[in-house]
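Tip: read the tokens left to right.
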């Protein structure tokens, strides 16, 4: 499925290096959050819900995050302004074999909220149509992606790895190797605000 998602992204001439870096950092954050108990561990694949098209299992939250990270900037094909909304529209309209409509909608929403306004059921009908559980999942995964996106502000892979530790109410995120990443620290702290609200922690970058 990941190769299918990459094929879709390449159709829109996406910035592959940046998107791969965002995917890598988002998944590192996700895994660290699971390790610390801030995100519930999930099976590699989840059972399909009642009424969901297709058979077998659907994408796990980690996979949804991965695919959204790869696709989050495809909206640049129509220009920078509102590219997150364009990405949402393109993902929702795409034919993606093997992906259920529910998973496709989750990926589209996570990509849409990597920047711009936060989800608002009163203003965003598509988000309002999601179940409460899926709204919560979108908020968690999109907050992680938004934070990760800030950690590649310069699009230079300045952050090669990260580690997270809980210290009281603070989530200390150590960026490695810790040099030449001034832009990432500035943007990461700024784009971590929603993450802090969703997970109830104060982010400290080191």
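Filled-in amino acids:
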């Amino acid at each position: 499925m990941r190769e299918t998602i990459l094929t879709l992204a390449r159709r829109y001439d996406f910035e592959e290096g940046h998107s791969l870096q965002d995917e890598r950092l988002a998944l590192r954050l996700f895994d660290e959050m699971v390790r610390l108990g801030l995100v519930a561990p999930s099976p590699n694949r989840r059972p399909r819900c009642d009424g969901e098209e297709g058979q077998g299992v659907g994408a796990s939250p980690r996979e949804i995050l991965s695919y959204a990270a790869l696709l989050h900037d495809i909206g640049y094909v129509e220009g920078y302004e509102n590219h997150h909304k364009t990405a949402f529209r393109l993902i929702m309209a795409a034919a993606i074999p093997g992906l259920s409509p529910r998973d496709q909608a989750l990926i589209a929403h996570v990509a849409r909220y990597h920047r711009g306004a936060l989800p608002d059921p009163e203003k965003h009908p598509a988000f309002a149509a999601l179940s409460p559980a899926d709204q919560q999942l979108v908020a968690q995964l999109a907050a992680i992606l938004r934070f990760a996106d800030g950690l590649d502000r310069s699009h230079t892979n300045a952050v090669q790895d990260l580690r997270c530790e809980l210290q009281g109410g603070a989530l200390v995120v150590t960026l490695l190797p810790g040099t030449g990443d001034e832009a990432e620290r500035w943007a990461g702290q700024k784009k971590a605000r929603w993450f802090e609200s969703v997970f109830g922690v104060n982010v400290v970058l080191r």
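The domain at 2-153 is CATH 1.10.3210.10 (Hypothetical protein af1432). Residues 16-35 form the longest helix (20 residues).
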